[in-house]
Amino acid sequence: MKPVYVLNGPNLNMLGLREPAIYGSASLKDVELRCHAHAASLGLTVDFRQSNSEGELVSWVQEARGKASAIAINAGAYTHTSVALHDALMAAERPAVELHLSNVHKREAFRHTSLIAPAVNGVICGFGVDSYVLAITALHSLITASKKG
Ligand code: DHK
Predict the structure, then answer these.
(1) Tell me, what CATH number does 68's domain have?
(2) Which pLDDT tens digit goes with each residue over 68-121?
(3) Based on the structure, what is the number of domains in the chain?
C-alpha cells in the first residue's frame, strides 16, 4: 500500500513556538508522531513533510499522483493564495483532505477563503492536532470506499 502524504506548508515548522494560543503547544515532530501512530492503527503508512516553499509543495502534490494513496494537506497561508496548489491537487487524482489546526472561519477574513478547497474531497479545521488524525481517518474511509467501488 502506498503511503498517505501528509504535507505541511509555510511556518508549520514553527509549531509549538508560534502563537501557541492559536496553534497549540505541540511541535511538528509531535504531530508527525501522532500521524504515524494513528495511520498504523488503520493499517496505513504516512510520508510526513514540511516546506516553506510553494513550489516544493506543488512538486510533492505532483509526486503524490504516482507515489501516494492519498493526500492530507495543511497548506498554511498558501491555502488562501495558491492557484498553483489548487491546480496540482486537481491533477493529482488522489483522495485529498485540506486541514487546519485552527478554525480559520473564526479568524481574520482573509483566512475565510480557501483556493484549494474546491480541489479536495473535504476540509477539516479547528481541532488542533486532532485535525490531522481526523484527516487520516477520512482518507482511510475514502481509500477503502474506492477499493470497493
Ligand atoms: C496554518 C497557517 O499557517 C495559517 O496560514 C492558516 C493554518 C491556518 C492552521 O490553522 O493550521 O490560515
Answers:
(1) 3.40.50.9100
(2) 999 999 999 999 999 999 999 999 999 999 999 999 999 999 999 999 999 999
(3) 1
Is 54's pLDDT higher than 90? yes
Q: Residue 64 corresponds to which amino acid?
A: A
Q: What pLDDT is stored for residue 149 in this prediction?
A: 58
In single-letter form, the type of residue at position 38 comes to H
Q: Which residues pair with 9 in a beta bridge?
A: none
Strands (E), 51-101: 70-74, 96-100
Q: How many residues does the chain have?
A: 149
Residue 72 β-bridge partners: 6, 97
Nearest-CA residue for atom 5 of ligand 1 = 77
Residue 100 CA to ligand 1 center (angstroms) comes to 6
Query: Which range of residues forms the domain containing residue 67?
Result: 4-148
